[in-house]
Amino acid sequence: MIRIIVAALAALALGAGAAKAEPVKIRVGWLLVPAEITPILFPEPGIARHEGKSYVLETTRFQGSPLLINALAAGEIDVAPFGYSSFALAVENAGMTNLRIFADEDRDGQGPHFTTQYLVRKDSGITKIEDLKGKIFATNATGSIGDMAARFMMKRHGLDPAKDVTTVEIALPNMNAMIEEKKADLVISVLPFFLDPKVQDVAHTLFTSKDAMGPTEISFLTAKAEFLQKNRAAVVDFLEDYLRALHWYNDPKNHAAVVKAISDFMKAPPERFSSWVFTERDYYRDPHAAVDVAALQRNIDAQQKLGFLKGPLDAKKYVDPALAREAAKRVPW
Length: 333
Fold this sequence. Notes:
Blueprint: H1 2-20, E1 24-30, E2 55-61, H2 65-73, E3 79-82, H3 84-92, E4 99-108, E5 117-121, E6 136-139, H4 145-156, E7 166-169, H5 175-180, E8 186-189, H6 197-202, E9 203-208, H7 209-213, E10 216-224, H8 225-230, H9 232-250, H10 255-266, H11 293-305, H12 322-329
Parallel strand pairs: 1-2, 6-7, 6-8
Antiparallel strand pairs: 3-10, 4-10, 5-8, 5-9
Helix pairs in contact: 9-12
């Protein structure tokens, strides 16, 4: 009888050990490739050291940040890519004070890297911000990152964006047509649409997002504090693999393979990406996935000044830099 009991206890212990060894599922939402690389995180064998061992990655496409907020709040995903605007709204409007930013993805206007452009026609006669009074501004969405930079710039030059310009909402891929066909006087231009030779022929940059806001935190990985606490080791392993993949994408010697990986995933011609993706013509990606907390705070402060937030929000309370730092120590470069 004692032998039977001992054997049974041993079997239970083995079963418990096996259960503990089960990889953590990390469900990540995403919006746009190549701005985000989580859906294409493992373009070559050997990059992922931990996927399938300590964690398994599950990625899901969403059409917009509000849907990401809802999915994260409902527990349908574990990680969401937010920019400063959607993050602050999730904290203030959705009451998600348990959110933590644990890794950076993309930054606008960092160093020589790309910054969002605000275009006017060359024949419009608009040469300064004040000339926008009475004109039509095409925004992708009121309160979006691109929208707020334009509004902040107008306010700095004495214009009331709610009264002095007419605002229409247009999808980003349609901005070029709006300016080419003279249906708007000022449009937001992002990659890859800014590089279209047709729009370059008829329009030029009046100002940039960097001019308006300085460097801008446009995408960072966010999760609930309790998820990070419970699965900290697995998340650090995930970030180690993320950084290895990011290093591969950023390495110029891999550029042809990078373009192929992205064009295959997007089912789009490689020529659409080859001249800019993962170069200085692209948005900035921090090699250690470190969040620029000072820039994030400035961005959120501007959001409040524009009236999109009811009160101040202390960015550093919501940033957990320790996971990315630990992961970066494991990746020698």
